Amino acid sequence: MNRTIAIANQKGGVGKTTTSVNLGACLASIGKRVLLVDIDPQGNATSGVGIEKADVEYCIYDVLVDDVEASKAIKPTSVENLYAIPATIQLAGAEIELVPTISREVRLKRALEEVKDDYDYIIIDCPPSLGLLTLNSLTASDAVMIPVQCEYYALEGLSQLLNTVRLVQKHLNQDLKIEGVLLTMLDARTNLGIQVIDEVKKYFQDKVYQTIIPRNVRLSEAPSHGEPIISYDPRSRGAEVYLDLAKEVLKNG
Ligand code: ADP
Ligand code: MG
Q1: What are the counts of helices (DSSP H) followed by strands (DSSP E) for the chain?
Q2: From the CB of 228, is ligand 1 less than 6 Å away?
C-alpha cells in the first residue's frame, strides 16, 4: 500500500520544505521508494535534493497545466530511492492559469495516479498559500502533515487551514486525513517553546507527532549544498530527529 502526504501550512517559513526534503530522504534511506513533488514556485525542495533548475526539461507546471505525463517530469535526486518532480518559477503562473481549466482541483491527483504504484510514499511540498496549488495537493493526498513553528502566534492561521481541509474533505477528497501536526524549530533554551508545545497539544491532542524538530543549524545549511541532512551530516541532531519522524510516519501506515 502506498501513501501520499501533503506538507501544508499557508504560513511561510514554518519548515514545510525542510520537512518534505528530509522526511522524504529519511524514508528513502530506510529503503522506501519515495517521490517528492515540489509544488511551490520557489522550488526550494527541488534545489534541496540537488536538482539544478537549468537541467529541468519538464516541471510540475507542465504536468498541471499542459497535461505532460508525470513520469516524464520525474528525476532522480542526490539520494538513492528518492525521486522528485521539480518546480521552477514557471509554476508561479499556474495559480491563475488553472482557474478557467476543467477539473482544475483534481489535476495533480489524476497525474499522480499513473505513477503512484511505483512508490511507497509520495510527499508533496506545498506553497505558502491556500490557492489552487494547495487544493490540488490536498485533493491528491491521503493525509496532510501540518508543520507548526514553536513561536508566538503558532496557532494563528491554523483555523483557515483546517477549514480548507474540511472543504476538501466535503467536496473533493473524503479520504483526506489530518495525519498530524509537527512542531518545528524548537529552541529548547526558552520557556516560550515549551508553552507553545503545551498549547498545540491542548488543541490537537493525539494528532501531534511525538517527534519535535529542534532548531539545528546543520538543517539550515544542508539546502545550499543540495543535500538532505542525512547525507550532508548524518551524525547531526537534525538527521536524528528526521529519522525519528520517518519511523513515526511508517508506524502510522
Ligand atoms: P517553509 O517551506 O515552510 O517556508 P522552510 O523549510 O523553507 O519553511 O524553512 C524556513 C527557513 O528555516 C529555511 O531557511 C530553513 O533552512 C530554516 N529551517 C527550517 N527548519 C529548521 C530547523 N529545524 N532548524 C534550523 N533552521 C531551520
Ligand atoms: Mg517551502
Answers
A1: 12, 7
A2: no
Render pLDDT for 120-179 as a digit per residue (tens, 0 to 9): 999 999 999 999 999 999 999 999 999 999 988 888 889 999 999 999 999 999 999 999
Instruction: Supply the pTM of this predicted model.
Output: 0.98
Evaluate whether 39 touches 137 at the Cβ level (below 8 Å): yes
Pairing of strands 121-125, 34-38: parallel
- Ligand 1 mean position to 215 CA, how many Å? 9
Q: Beta strand pairing status for 121-125 and 82-85?
A: unpaired
Instruction: Order the strands of the 82-85 sheet from edge to edge.
Output: 75-76, 82-85, 34-38, 121-125, 3-7, 143-149, 177-184
**216 CB under 6 A from ligand 1?**
yes
Length of the chain: 253
Domain ranges of the chain: 3-251
Which ligand approaches the C-alpha of residue 185 most closely?
Answer: 1
Q: Is 220 in the pocket of ligand 1 (CB under 6 A)?
A: yes
Which CATH superfamily is 3-251 part of? Answer: P-loop containing nucleotide triphosphate hydrolases (3.40.50.300)
